[in-house]
Amino acid sequence: MANDRFFITDVSSSVETVDWDILARNHVLGAVVKATQGTHHRDKKFVEHFTQAAAMGIIVGAYHWCDPTNDSESQAERFLDVIGNQPINFMAIVIEQYWQDWDEWRESRSRGESKTKKIVPPDEISDSSSRIASYLSQNSGLPLLVYLRVQFLQTYAAPVINWLPHYKLWLADIPEETSEVTTTWPEFATWYYPTKSGPELPAGCHNWTMWQFTNNRFLLPGIGGTKASLSLFNGTRKQFLQFARVETFE
């Protein structure tokens, strides 16, 4: 494994158990833990995942799933309230939701369909997520990432591009993952490390901070039988620590 290669994982309550010691010993330097969704949902595993990861020396961030059908300021306030008592190193908001009705979305997924009929207008997705990002930036001293996929942006939320270049980007650019792979961390780092230099960038954006390159293929030790969701940081270990505002002593 290249000397400075490291990974950042993201987890939610969909990952029941994590052996953070195994991850820490295999170059997982950071974790982004789901804290909230919309105005009312608090992830039931947030405190457990955060506490256990931090105990292993992993740099921990928290993320909020933006629901464009809920009040923006209330979402941001709820997120800050939930993470307020935890020594979080950075924050992220996830912009992925284009559907208005969760029940319809679940039904369409159960039928193997990828789209729903009740769609949130692109302007509303943009306005809602922009307000959340602005509120968090103004009311927290933590670094903030905006997570999305370029295809989602182009299809459902084109107006987001008007404000997106002002934020640090966590971009999902994941190859089509059809075959499940069970492997070890050393083999993964050697044989499955991304070969391209970075993710596709949205129009008008010239850099990325984190790149989620896999989330539905690899079964790796320590992640409770769940397929690993992993990202790279655009920089060295030292630069990641600086981004997360972790004091180092040389």
Structure explained in plain terms:
By secondary structure, the chain is α/β, with parallel strands linked by helices. It has one domain (7-243): TIM Barrel, CATH 3.20.20. It has 8 helices and 11 strands. It has helices spanning 20-24, 46-55, 72-83, 102-110, 122-139, 150-156, 185-191, 237-243, and strands at residues 7-11, 28-37, 41-42, 59-65, 90-94, 144-149, 168-172, 181-182, 210-214, 218-219, 230-233. It is globular and about 45 Å long. The model has no long low-confidence stretch (mean pLDDT 93).
Question: Which key features would you list for this structure?
Answer:
alpha/beta; TIM Barrel; 250 residues; globular; 8 helices; two-stranded parallel sheet
Write down the secondary-structure element order.
Answer: EHEEHEHEHHEHEEHEEEH
Strand order within the widest beta sheet: 1-2-4-5-6-7-9-11
CA gyration radius, whole angstroms: 18 Å
Q: What is the CATH third-level topology name? A: TIM Barrel
Overall domain count: 1
Report the span from N to C terminus: 24 Å
Structural class: alpha/beta
Any idea of the CATH class? Alpha Beta
What would you say the CATH architecture is? Alpha-Beta Barrel
Overall geometry: globular
- Could you give me the name of the CATH homologous superfamily? Glycosidases
Strand residues, percent: 15-25%
Give a short account of the largest sheet.
Answer: 8 strands, mixed, barrel
Number of H- or I-type helical stretches? 8
